[in-house]
């Protein structure tokens, strides 16, 4: 058995997220097929399905909502969209309406996905976060695993520094994280 970061930490975290929290695990090679480009941070097919399922709308409306989500470029705007939805004109009523991205009332309506070694083409550098959590195709959590068998110089601070570096070199992915 190998003693590397993936075997000693990642696999255990993924197993916990799958078994205890009920997330679907998608292997990196399968997950990559869900995106047309490695610079895409939203898993469009998952978000489209979620918008249709949660709001009871057709493909045309769902595509408009996804298009608006992709225009968001600030954390505050993204958080507002997560909380309130995307405000667009309802094509039937011609009234403005909020289209939800997450179903807070019925959490089982949300698609919860975990993957690992998520390859992302950043602005100045390509990155590969250890574990990524997506809800309805939206990247919400990056977990950087550090092995307890690593050298004494490796600690959780290294993981924090790595996330900070990722935030700088792959801004598009990390501007959608809700920083707390």
The count of helical stretches stands at 7
Percentage of helical residues? 40-55%
Shape: globular
Portion of residues in beta strands equals 15-25%
Q: Spell the H/E element sequence.
A: HEHHHHEEEEEEEHH
- Mean pLDDT, nearest integer? 85
Structurally, how many domains make up the residues?
Answer: 1
Please summarize the sheet with the most strands.
4 strands, mixed
Gyration radius over CA = 18 Å
Low-confidence stretches: none
Task: Provide the descriptors you would attach to this structure in a database record.
single chain, 180 residues, alpha+beta, globular
Fold and architecture overview:
This protein has helices spanning 5-19, 28-32, 44-55, 59-71, 75-84, 156-169, 171-174; strands at residues 24-25, 86-89, 96-99, 112-116, 120-121, 126-127, 131-135, 138-143. With 180 residues, it is an alpha+beta fold. It has one domain. Helix 3 (44-55) crosses helix 4 (59-71). The longest helix is centred in the first third of the chain and has 15 residues, at 5-19. The termini are far apart.
């Amino acid at each position: 058995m190998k003693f590397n970061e993936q075997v000693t930490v990642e696999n255990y975290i993924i197993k916990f997220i799958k078994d205890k929290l009920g997330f679907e695990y998608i292997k990196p090679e399968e997950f990559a097929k869900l995106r047309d480009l490695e610079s895409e941070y939203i898993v469009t097919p998952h978000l489209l399905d979620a918008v249709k399922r949660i709001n009871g709308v057709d493909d045309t409306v769902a595509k408009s909502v996804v298009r608006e989500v992709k225009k968001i470029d600030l954390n505050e705007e993204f958080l507002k969209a997560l909380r309130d939805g995307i405000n667009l004109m309802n094509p039937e009523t011609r009234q403005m309406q909020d289209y939800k991205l997450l179903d807070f009332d019925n959490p089982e309506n949300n698609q919860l996905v975990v993957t690992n070694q998520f390859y992302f083409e950043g602005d100045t550098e390509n990155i590969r976060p250890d574990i990524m959590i997506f809800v309805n195709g939206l990247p919400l959590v990056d977990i950087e695993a550090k092995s307890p068998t690593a050298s004494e110089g490796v600690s959780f601070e290294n993981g924090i520094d790595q996330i900070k570096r990722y935030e700088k070199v792959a801004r598009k992915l990390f501007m959608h994280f809700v920083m707390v």
